[in-house]
Specification:
17 helices; 6-stranded antiparallel beta sheet
Length: 509
């Protein structure tokens, strides 16, 4: 039997290939995830960009786990002039969602600082080797996958919003990148080569910084001071138990990991495994509704410390509600890696959906995080200057017996419900990882329950009693997230990608 070098789960075959190439050169899980991160910024442009940010949960075999927070920062100065900020509608098919774009929706990007911080602390191969697959894919092109073609269709108004976006993404025939089309990004290849040659200063203080400041000079907030001041923050992960399992995830001030922990601890008050045939969905529905309520309560209280959400008194208030009920009866991608030396990593990346404005000469679009409703619940324009923005992104490592699972999801506010359900499938129902990821999902928000096809009519009838309305999807959909997961045990590595988001699971020998 061939020795396994490592495994990767992600949302694009070219991202998997980048990690595979690095594993085959002797790289570790962190080399592989940085190569995959760079590739994702090339071949998943709606979901990942040098103009965005993200998080890495790194669990080195011989060191303490740490979270690298390279998410976006609000601008230092909040001018009173008219911002370039306006709404567009994204059509998911069964639902329509409003996003806000324009240069006034862009926050300070942290992606590049994150790449270099992870590289310097955890990687073993030269940066040129890690960037080589992404540069090649940008220079010579990569075939557009069905998933990427679909995402372009969903957010089409954003990628047609400005002349610079149309030049980069719309063909002479008027089409956005289509399935099986070879899509090249030569300007981005040049930018990546600049990063390899000149380091992060190329982006934050050099030519790219000047271009970012220029495109934001008319209606945006970002300037060169914002870029120069940006720093990666390293945090201890949020650690908690769910029944017999242990979890590590993204800590406060982000909300995603905290809300997953909150929902799981609510569910711990009920023996979920006793509810068969889909009847456990009532518990999940109630947990999601109470978690949303707790989130709004917390974010509406200026004196509330998010870290206190798991305090016993606060949690008990909501656990009582779920016990009484059941005692008897937005553009994100994720990458997971692990290697044979015991290193495991989970990285979630986002560009929002993109702000519709390209950075001139650099080949990438800035984020629209100041226009993301999910992370601006108090209303647009109310952000405080020079603050790390909160996020729903929650790269997670789950430990069950001698197995560890690296997992996470894209999907904006659906991230927490996707991860919650996969964890429950593994821990409560003893599902193997592949089935746990593939099983149909639900998501509850604002009294509306969205549910994938695959549950009995009797289950739907019971759920109708718990919510204001139900939206029944005809199949699985990227709306419900995309949990790409890797399983690491003492003598094996497994990987599975979520088909909802074009997932790929690859083992490298």
């Amino acid at each position: 039997m061939k020795t396994i070098r490592g495994g990767i789960a992600c949302g694009h075959p070219k991202v998997a290939e980048a990690a595979e190439e690095v594993f085959q050169k002797g790289g570790n899980a962190f080399d592989a995830i940085v190569a995959a991160q760079l590739s994702a910024c090339v071949v998943e442009p709606v979901l990942a960009s040098l103009g965005g940010g993200g998080y890495l949960l790194a669990c080195p075999a011989s060191q303490q786990p740490q979270v690298y927070d390279f998410f976006v920062q609000t601008p230092i100065n909040k001018h009173r002039g008219k911002a370039d900020f306006y709404p567009v509608d994204a059509d998911f098919g069964d639902v329509t969602q409003e996003f806000h774009i324009g240069s006034g929706s862009a926050a300070t990007p942290g992606m590049v600082k994150g790449i270099f911080a992870i590289y310097e602390d955890l990687c073993s191969l030269p940066l040129a080797e890690l960037a080589s697959p992404a540069i090649r894919q940008a220079r010579h092109g990569a075939l557009v996958t069905p998933m990427q073609a679909y995402v372009f269709d969903v957010v089409s108004p954003i990628y047609r919003a400005t002349e610079s976006a149309q030049k980069a993404f719309v063909s002479p025939a008027g089409d956005l990148p289509r399935e099986e089309e070879l899509f090249k990004r030569p300007e981005l290849a040049d930018t990546l080569e600049g990063l390899v040659q000149d380091g992060e200063r190329f982006f934050y203080e050099g030519a790219t910084a000047r271009s970012i400041a220029k495109v934001c000079s008319n209606g945006g907030y970002l300037n060169r001071d914002d870029l120069k001041a940006y720093e990666v923050i390293i945090r201890d992960p949020l650690a908690f138990d769910y029944r017999s399992a242990g979890l590590l995830t993204n800590p406060p001030p982000t909300f995603g990991g905290l809300l997953i922990a909150f929902a799981l601890q609510l569910m711990e008050a009920v023996q979920v495994a006793d509810f068969a045939g889909g009847s456990h969905l009532g518990i999940l529905t109630k947990a999601m509704m109470l978690t949303q309520k707790a989130r709004l309560d917390a974010m509406g209280d200026d004196r509330f410390d998010a870290g206190n959400l798991l305090d016993t008194k606060y949690l008990t208030r909501y656990q009582l509600e779920i016990q009484d009920e059941f005692a008897c009866t937005r553009g994100t991608t994720h990458i997971s890696t692990a290697d044979s030396k015991g290193n495991i990593a989970a990285m979630t990346l986002s560009n929002g959906e993109g702000c519709g404005v390209m950075v001139e000469g650099s080949g990438f679009m800035l984020n629209n995080m100041l226009g993301e409703e999910d992370i601006n619940p108090g209303g647009f324009g109310r952000w405080l200057p020079n603050r790390r923005m909160a996020s729903m992104m929650a790269p997670t490592v789950l430990s069950v017996g001698d197995k560890r699972f690296s997992l996470g999801s894209g999907g904006s506010n659906r991230i927490r419900s996707a991860i919650l359900q996969v964890v429950s499938n593994i821990v409560d129902f003893d599902m193997d990882m592949v089935r746990a990821v593939a099983s149909p999902r639900i998501h509850v928000e604002g009294g509306e329950l969205n549910i994938e096809k695959g549950f009995a009519a009797s289950v739907l009838a019971e759920l109708e009693k718990e919510v204001d309305s139900i939206v029944c999807w005809q199949g699985s959909n990227l709306f419900f997230g995309g949990v790409h997961a890797v399983e690491l045990s003492a003598n094996n590595i497994r990987a599975t990608g979520d088909a909802r988001r074009g997932g790929i699971g690859l083992i490298v020998h």
